[in-house]
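Troubleshooting entry. Yesterday's outputs looked truncated, so today I'm pasting the complete records for two proteins to confirm everything comes through intact. If either block looks cut off, that's the bug. Protein one:
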Amino acid sequence: MTFTANQIAVLLQGKIEGEPDCSVDSFGRIEEAKKGQLAFLANPKYEDFLYTTGASVVIVGEKLQLKHPVQSTLIRVADPYSAFASLLHHYQQLKTSQLNGVQEPSYVATTATKGENVYIGAFAYVGDGTSIGNNVKIFPGVFIGNNVKIGDNCIFHPGVKIYHDCVLGKNVVIHSGTVIGGDGFGFAPQADGTFKKVPQIGNVVIEDNVEIGSNATIDRATIGSTVIRAGAKLDNLIQIAHNVEVGTNTVIAAQAGVSGSTKIGNNVMIGGQAGVVGHIQIADGSRINAQSGVSKSIKKPKSSVTGSPAYEYASALRSQAVTRNLPELEKRITDLENLVKQLLEEKAQYNV
């Protein structure tokens, strides 16, 4: 697909500097882009590449002051990074909108219903009683169980598994290998030392505008629902246990895990490899640093914690600074002890 600078500027509500009819048909990084490609400049440390890039069109900030002449056509916008993201989103939508129909071989139950402009790729499975909204794209190898409800404009990439009775809102994107609605980890210890499985009869509810990365697992609730609220973004390789609630616009980075029945508030940020124990609450706006182990509730909104066990961020940094200075502190204490010993010896001699 080919677009002119003028078409891109209209879409982004930007201002053109250069040739409006200049066209591009692909994207490139500003440091290596070639003629016919579009790039963007958001980070000032890459500005030098603006004057040497081969890109035909570059998206830049509206306040950027040029230090040298440029060969590329510029499109000035308020926020280059967000504008470029919007452009990529539009480009992706154009590509996926061309997908339509049911490929063979695939299985769609006769009791399943689907809206308009739905794509179901080869080797996909759609179970009894499932409803699929408009403009949904189900790529090859996806499994969707019985009585699943799927809203409009969802995209399920190859190999996604969605178990029975789960509910997904609009504009949900799930990447390859992720499992929605697998059994929660529920086993009752028995007197003889064995464990008896506790049936997991709840479901998973994913609200609108959620995106989940590859190979993540969202367990179904024991009773009730595991809930991912609107706008949440989950990275690859994340474990969300049964009956967890993830708040609106919360982001969780790769390899993090949340144990059962924990309630995570809105606009929380959880770093990679962090672990959160079960049956606690995380206040709105909290920040949990990478590799932190959260073992108790965070009750104060907009708190920042780090470490394992995790505690208040600023205090943790002070403690780390003190730890780094321990060898010097030990030397100073030894010197003080020697000085005190010397003074005591001199005092003893004087008294004699």
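Protein two, checking that the full record survives here as well:
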Amino acid sequence: MRRRASLVLLAFAVFFTALSPLMRWYAFPRLAKIPPSQYQDMVMEARPATLIDYGTMKAKKVPKVTIVQTLKGDVAASDRIEKTAGRDVVVWDTLSYVAGPDGKMVSEIPERYIFDAHSQDPVHATGEMVDGDPVRREGIEYKWPFLTEKRDYSYFDAQTRTSAPIHYKGTTTFHGLEVYYFEQTIPWTKVPLPKKMPVKGITPQAVEKMGTTRWYTTKRMFWVDPVTGAPVNGEEIHKEEMRGGDLLPGGGKVTAFAGHVKMRDDYVASTVALVKSQRTLVLLLTSYLPWGFLTLGAALLALSLWLEARSRRPGEPDRAAAPLPETAGA
């Protein structure tokens, strides 16, 4: 009876031991993915800030500038692109809406971001754009991959429509989470004007005809949860200038927007709470279950060997080797 139980336990030990690497290296890459229907919004503020007055073409100090970012998954577009891409695809339609202290629009820039649901690598398909301009992204945007590594990544900048390295700077603790800190600096670069301008009658084409150009620089900072790859906090030291042309007397330059942009405290708190709940699911597939199954397999193996040893007590004759009793009349 003990020998039979030992064999059963041995079979379960082999099963759970084999299941451990399968859970980590086979199930996790296929099960961990971004849902195509995701929706979220975020509010950031620069307090104080500098804004251009398009009426006088002069910069002025304002108490705050608000940036509202919304992100909405397009499920129908994801399904359509998946048929030709041959992999799980997510399509995000995002909008960065900048409002002055009076709540009026300063600028708004829509984007369509298409990427692999598992790896977050960009997927190039019709419709990929920034402010209506077709783009071909390289690297990540908005989110890091699951199980983020301590290394530099290529990060897409929507203003310049180009990608540049974002550098890993170290590990720190943020609201009780161990996070990786990343920085990216975009040097002064000539960038397109937003297609939707805040003053009626002023269009990007009209400004460009007058020879005035828009320039931009930023220092971008992210605190990223390495398990989910989700930023739990983001900041930018952002500056834009209008330069030259007939709009600026003497061909000079004027600050169009400048400020230290930070996530509002209530959105930081809600983002951290969401990430803490999601990271448990990722850890379940990458750590808790694989190590649990491996530990269980080792325990079952030990118990199986113990039962096998108990079934073979010292000095106990082996029944299989015992001679058969003589039959009568032999």
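Both blocks look complete. Sanity check on protein two: The first helix runs from residue 2 to 31.
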